[in-house]
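Title: Prediction job returns without error message
Component: structure pipeline
Severity: low
Priority: P3
Assignee: unassigned

Description:
Job completed but the reporter wants confirmation the result is attached to the right record. Sequence as submitted:
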Amino acid sequence: MNKIIPDGATCLFRLNPGGSRNGKIVLVECADIQDGDEGSRYTVKEYESIKVDTEDGWHHQQIRLKPRSTNPNLITLELSNEDEHRYRVIGEFVCVIS
């Protein structure tokens, strides 16, 4: 995320943001012990959602969690409907504190 958040920075996040998260930088918890990036249970990425309307309302067709980083080892996480239960947005990036 070093294009948005400098490495080693301390950040402020808003807990449980409501509304659309599209295009926002979010703190995401992975229910697995470790996620792919850096072996951590948490990741900070840009949220992108593709939604479709159905007779029952809308649902996510796809969710992408995209790194905004110059590090080529960080990958975009493409979540399926099954993955939605493994990943949980817990905060929205507000600002860098230091």
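Comment from assignee: result matches the submitted record. The mean pLDDT is 85.
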